[in-house]
Design goal:
heterodimer, A: about 210 residues, alpha/beta, 5-stranded parallel sheet, B: about 450 residues, TIM Barrel, Glutaredoxin, 2 domains, 7-stranded parallel sheet, 4-stranded mixed sheet, 19 helices
């Protein structure tokens, strides 16, 4: 019953109610992983709706806020590997670029789908991306560029991964308004994601699943 | 019909002799003269010089004077991050920490921020080309301005604090009205309300929180006897209809929207649509022929009433000039370009082309490859430069024009590897592609060859 209530308020983006119900659920002995499953299954649905232009940025952000409210309650009592079961993603907007709406949406979609996300913010240097991949032993590096002139930083970062000998260890995903599938091929990224709604689906299809990790 | 008449007529939903062409050369204008984005967005003389080059090379029917959506935010106190090859970005949002409304004492005045430079350039452009070319004054749309002021929290405010969003939108609408007064006062023929973020909210949200602002803005422009256009970026497929309901004279879209589908909607509201040549994949990274082909396909796919052909948005800084020239040529000389492209595909390598023995020339040999110097403006200027050099050096040099309109010249281009037009080759080597050299530079180059 409480899971249904969490689900209802979560879908309506009511973060305070979600926080309260999560705390109550814990007190009543509900398994934290069951709550996580409720949240992530709707985040997946949300991603599809966003991809299909059925919902837009405000609706995603408000649900993401409710997701964070529940996770703040659950994180301290769960091992990170049980909340985030699909692996670690380093995310950021490339050097010289301050745009972050798209990057933030991707981050929320990934968290909501069970990825551990390390957000480096905007204007991130290639060296910082590469160091973060090493430090966090990340499985995925997600880079966003909104400007035709900053796209080149994606290539520079990938080149640096190659130079450090760790290119094969990390799946490189890129996105942003001027970025295309062809550009991804050109700079030897692993994939291009058209929108935030596509990212989790794409990674899960590529094998970043609960079974693998 | 002049370009200006064409734009005014099409935005009045009347018949024009040709499809109007509006290259959105903002920062790209700077590239034509070797200036950075910062140069042309901060220095009026450089901006004017660059805009005149856009006018000369691309022969627009209408053109923007400044394409920078951060002008208003800067005046209101947001800090900008500058770049050499992109417009500035907003770095700090003045309402980010607290959901407040900026003081009305900050509403733009002609002495604020970069407005003295912008208004002066508008007046200079009006005097220089305004008789025949429609000048666009671009303002930041009220919704995108609200996001500049508030930051990303604006999106959540739309659900959690609608009253605040309404108040902020009301303030931003006042800013828009002030900007409209200033730009119309400086001679702008069309006010473009550029609001890329409209594509990021639902049609319902737009109707509830934005409709009134945009409807007010467009009614105000109309009351001033000036034309209006509503520019959006991104996948605004779902928003086109609610945008139409705010009653702009035109709507401009980028490549994320299917223009055929969008035009069905805009036509039903008798609104002119503009767009939507892809910026990156085509204008920046495509070839001249790709650009020509895209435009011809577009022309073939949609009706020509209520239509303006334009890039999807502000052209990237480094768009090769020849691509924009190719677009212009495909719009203005569609049938000629159609035949060029058809010939290009069918011309057989078997057409016998004897290239000169460049290593044993007795004097410098200047070969000019043009689309057609009689119809392509850039080609006319390039050929003019070559004619002037021929007059200067006389018989000590040889010159020739190869027009791409003739099959044999296409075969020659293929054999020589000429990919962009117009181009100047000297002694068989590419010297200038699309850039028309100054007389001094040209003379110096020839003198070096003569020695």
């Amino acid at each position: 019953m409480i899971l249904q209530e969490i689900s209802y308020f979560f879908k309506h983006g009511q973060s305070e109610k979600v926080r309260e119900l999560t705390l109550r659920g814990m007190a009543e002995g509900v398994m934290p992983s069951d709550i996580v499953n409720v949240l992530t299954s709707y985040m997946t649905e949300l991603g599809i709706k966003f991809k299909n232009n059925e919902i837009f940025v405000p609706e995603v952000l408000i649900v993401a806020r409710a997701f964070n409210a529940a996770i703040e309650v659950l994180e301290p009592i769960m091992e990170p590997s049980k909340v985030y079961t699909r692996g670690t993603v380093i995310i950021g907007t490339v050097e010289g670029d301050l745009h972050d709406i798209g990057k933030n949406l991707v981050k929320m979609m990934l968290k909501g789908n069970g990825f551990h996300v390390v957000d480096l913010g905007v204007d991130v240097k290639p060296e910082t991306f590469v160091q973060a991949v090493i430090t966090h032993n990340a499985q995925v590096l997600a880079m966003s560029a909104l400007l035709t002139t900053t796209m080149i930083k994606i290539k520079e970062t990938i080149d640096l991964l190659v130079k450090r000998g760790i290119r094969q260890q990390v799946y490189v995903l890129i996105g942003g308004a001027p970025v295309t599938t062809n550009y991804a091929k050109e700079v030897r990224a692993d994939a291009y994601a058209r929108d935030a709604g596509s990212v989790s689906e794409l990674l899960i299809k590529r094998g970043f699943s609960k079974k693998v990790l | 019909m002049t370009g200006k008449e064409r734009i005014i007529e099409i935005l009045s939903h009347k018949v024009t002799d040709k499809i109007p062409w509006v290259p959105f050369a903002g920062i790209h204008a700077g590239a034509l003269k070797g200036y950075s984005a910062k140069d042309v967005l901060q220095d009026g003389d450089r901006l004017f010089e660059a805009l005149m080059e856009v006018h000369r090379l691309y022969q627009p029917d209408g053109m923007p004077v400044v394409f920078d959506l951060q002008v208003e935010a800067e005046i209101l106190g947001c800090e900008l991050a500058w770049s050499d090859d992109t417009p500035p970005s907003v770095k700090s949002h003045i309402c980010a920490t607290e959901a407040n409304i900026p003081c009305r004492c900050l509403l733009p005045k002609e002495t604020d921020g970069r407005l003295p430079m912008i208004l002066d350039t508008m007046k200079r452009m009006k005097k220089a080309v305004g008789e025949t070319t429609a000048l666009y004054g671009l303002i930041c749309g009220p919704f995108t301005l609200a996001s500049h002021l508030r930051g990303n929290d604006l999106f959540m405010d739309m659900i959690l604090d609608e009253d605040y969003v309404k108040d902020l939108m009301s303030f931003c609408t006042e800013v828009s009205l002030k900007m409209i007064d200033l730009y119309i006062g400086s001679g702008m023929d069309v006010i473009a309300v550029v609001d890329p973020l409209v594509s990021q909210i639902s049609p319902n949200h737009f109707t509830e929180l934005c409709h009134e602002s945009f409807a007010t803005v467009f009614a105000y422009i109309r009351s001033k006897g000036v034309k209006s256009s509503f520019f959006v970026c991104g996948n605004a497929t779902r928003q086109i209809e609610v945008m139409c309901k705010t009653k702009p004279d035109g709507i401009s879209i980028d490549e994320n929207v299917d223009i055929v589908m969008a035009k069905r909607i805009t036509d039903s509201y008798n609104i002119t649509i503009g767009g939507n040549i892809p910026l990156t994949t085509l204008m920046l990274h495509g070839t001249q022929q790709d650009n020509m082909k895209y435009v011809l396909d577009m022309i073939d796919r949609i009706s020509h009433d209520n239509l303006i052909i334009a890039p999807g948005c502000d052209m990237p800084y480094a768009v090769p000039f020849e691509n924009a020239i190719g677009v212009q040529q495909a719009i203005r000389e569609s049938e000629q370009v159609r035949s060029i492209l058809a010939n290009y595909q069918t011309v057989e390598e078997t057409i016998e082309i004897d290239l000169p023995d460049y290593s044993s020339l007795t004097k410098p040999f200047i070969e000019v490859f043009t689309l057609d110097s009689e119809s392509c403006a850039a080609c006319t200027y390039m050929m003019g430069a070559v004619d002037a050099i021929k007059a200067y050096f006389g018989d000590s040099i040889d010159t020739i024009e190869y027009k791409y309109t003739e099959k044999i010249n296409i075969a020659r281009c293929k054999k020589m590897g000429v990919s962009n037009l117009p181009s100047i080759y000297i002694n068989g080597e590419l010297k200038w592609s699309s850039i028309i050299p100054s007389k001094d530079e040209f003379i110096q180059t020839i003198k070096e060859k003569l020695n």
